[in-house]
Design brief:
The chain is of the alpha+beta class and about 170 residues long. It has a single domain, classed as 3-Layer(aba) Sandwich (Glutaredoxin). The chain contains 5 helices and 8 strands, in the order αββββαβαβαββα. Strand 4, helix 2 and strand 5 form a beta-alpha-beta unit. It is globular and about 40 Å long. The N terminus is likely disordered.
Length: about 170
Amino acid sequence: MFRLTLFLFTIIFSNLSYSDDNNQLQINKPPINIEPFTLKTENGLEENFFNTNEKVILLNFWATWCPPCIKEIPDLQKLKKEFGSGLEIFFISVDSNFEKVVPKFLKKNKFSKLRVFNDQKLIISNKFKVKIMPTTIIINKEFKEIYRIVGYVDWQSQKYKSLIKNLL
């Protein structure tokens, strides 16, 4: 019975993650205005966002149970290191037991210096109409959603590095 339950659980959640590399980049023409939003930090504090302060923002929606999400994290960290202060990356976790699961996950995988936010109630995910993990929303310096990437991509590829570089 346990194996059947585990199998069904795996099937259900694997359908919520996406790792094919075809037709994932969606270009918003015209760019979509972003309404101010609030994110809850790892420590339970709220941060309000209403402009970019001349930065490009990546909102990366992910979960600890999503293999493609986990695969993206190191590449996104390298991207942040490469582009520095002109780029902000917010890792928005949709894990249902955030306080218990995410800190252990981050420590186990030695992920540090991530700006991790809690969306266990899916408030931000619903606001941005995110349904598949991972999804990354790219917000330009004018605080407009310019790109949306559904599923895993290789953030270290020239295609995505150039995309970010052109926005900076």
